[in-house]
Structures are given as structure tokens and as C-alpha cells.
Amino acid sequence: MTTRALPSGSGGSTEAPEVEALHVTTAPRPTLRLHLWLENKGELFFGIGRAQLLFSIQQQGSLRKAAKVLGMSYRAAWGKIQQTEQVLGLKLVESRGQRRDGVSLTPAGEELADQFQAWFTTVERCALNSASTIFPFQVAKCSETDT
User: Fold this and answer.
1) Which of 37, 71, 92, 135 has its CA 20 to 30 A from that of 86?
2) Residue 18: strand, helix, or coil
3) Facing residues of 94 across strands?
4) Under CATH, which number does the domain 49-133 receive?
5) Mean per-residue pLDDT, 36-60
């Protein structure tokens, strides 16, 4: 068995065993899972969860309702929004008027969520294409499975 360099995360090992040609007798259908996020100075400031939060705010028209739909507290949701706004120096949500009128995404919030979704889709497509040339079995994308 030989080793080859693999891309590493923050400080991770880059050596892994190289696998000889894999002969699969049954055809598994594994599901591709991706965890993508953006960091600043080692701290997450935007990822799929925050993109989902922004899309949920857009759909619900309320931070409280968006948080509830995603199973998180209002405080946690607001903290995530504030942290991302602070790192980017941009407002992502704005009040619709009176306090009870809810919130909406700013143009910057809409653009960030859309850009992250486009990036995720591009990376997912690339990973699936690579998997189809590397593995002797088909890999499904997450939305193609029943889980």
C-alpha cells in the first residue's frame, strides 16, 4: 500500500493510504454529504445553516418564526445573524416597520444567501462528477435520498 497527499483542513494530516482498484460485488448507493462554511480568523461566520436561516426569514417574514421552523431559539438565530453582520460589516436583515411587522432580508442578505447556495451547488456538482470517475459505484446527492 502506498500513500499520497490529500488536501488538509486546518492543521490536519495530509497522508492517507492509497487504495488499490476496488472490486465491488454489490452496488452500494452512498449519499454525498458536504459541510461547507466560511471562517474568519478560525471562527465560522457563514455556512449552510445561516443560509437556511436567511431563506427561512425571507419565507416567514419573521426571525422568531424562521428560528422556530429551523428548531432553534430566537436568541441563537439573532446571535448568528449579528455575528455574520459584524464580520462582513453589512446588515443582512431589516425591520419592516413596527416591531410586530417582522423583518425582511436586505439586498445584501438576499445576495449572500443566493451566492452561498450557488457555491454549494457548484461544489456539490463537482464532488458528484469526481465521485463518478473515482468510485466504481454511483453516488447520490443528498436530495436524491429518502433520508
Assistant:
1) 71
2) coil
3) 104
4) 1.10.10.10
5) 95
3 sits in the region (left: phi over 0; alpha: psi -120 to 50; else beta) called: beta
**Per-domain boundaries in the chain:** 49-133
**DSSP label at residue 14:** -
pLDDT for position 9: 54
Q: H/E element holding 32? A: strand 31-32
pLDDT (tens digit, 9 = 90+) per residue, 3-34? 555 555 555 554 545 555 555 556 678 999 99
Q: Which residue has the cell 410586530?
A: 100
β-strand 37-40 against 43-47: which pairing, if any? antiparallel
The closest alpha carbon to 106, from 116, 95, 115, belongs to 95
| SS3 at position 29 | coil
pTM for this model (two decimals) = 0.76
